[in-house]
Amino acid sequence: MSWLNNATIETKAEKDTNAALQARATFKAERTAQVQALTITTDAGNEFDADEISQGRMARAILSMDDTEVVVWVLADNTAVGASKAELIEALKLAGLAQMALWT
Fold first, then answer.
1. Count of H helices and E strands in the chain?
2. Which candidate among 9, 17, 66, 94 keeps its CA 20 to 30 Å from the CA of 76?
3. What is the mean pLDDT of the segment spanning 74-101?
4. Which three-class secondary structure state does DSSP give residue 15?
5. pLDDT tens for each residue of 32-75
6. What integer best gives the mean pLDDT of the chain?
7. Cα separation of 62 and 55, whole Å?
8. pTM: predicted TM-score of the whole model, two decimal places
9. Over 80: is that where the pLDDT of 4 sits?
10. DSSP secondary structure code for residue 38 in this structure
11. 43 close to 94: Cβ distance less than 8 angstroms
12. How many Cα atoms are found within 13 Å in the side-chain-facing hemisphere of 17?
C-alpha cells in the first residue's frame, strides 16, 4: 500500500472549503465581467460606458471642467458627442449606482 503514502486524501471539510472558494472565485469573475460591460443612458439619451475605467475618466473630466464647458466624449457605440459637465455628473452617478447594484 505504498501508493497511500503519496496520495492526498481530501476530507469532507476540505472539499466543502475548496468548493466554497471556487464558487466565490467564479462569482467574482462573473461580477467583474458584468462591471466591465456596464453602460448607462443619460436623460439626453446618450449611452455611456460605465465600467470602472470610464468612471475614472468621467471623474477626472468633471474635476477639470468649468460648469459651462463641453468636451468631446466617445459614447458606448463609439459616437462622439459634446458632453457637458452636468451630463458627465449624471452619467457618473448612474454608473456608480449600476455598479453598486452588481456589488450588493
1. 4, 4
2. 66
3. 97
4. helix
5. 788 888 999 999 999 999 999 999 999 999 999 999 999 999 99
6. 90
7. 10
8. 0.76
9. no
10. -
11. no
12. 5
Helices 52-64 + 85-103 axis angle, to 10: 150
Q: Give me the torsion for CA of 48, 49, 53, 55, rounded to 10°.
A: 40
In DSSP notation, 24-61 reads HHHHHHHHHHHHHT-EEE-TTS-EEE-SHHHHHHHHHH
**Sign of the dihedral defined by the CA atoms of residues 26, 31, 36, 39, in that order:** positive
Q: What is the pLDDT, as a whole number, of residue 5?
A: 57
Identity at 28, one-letter amino acid code: K
Minimal CA–CA distance to 71: which of 96, 43, 46? 46
Tell me the C-alpha distance between 29 and 20, whole Å: 14
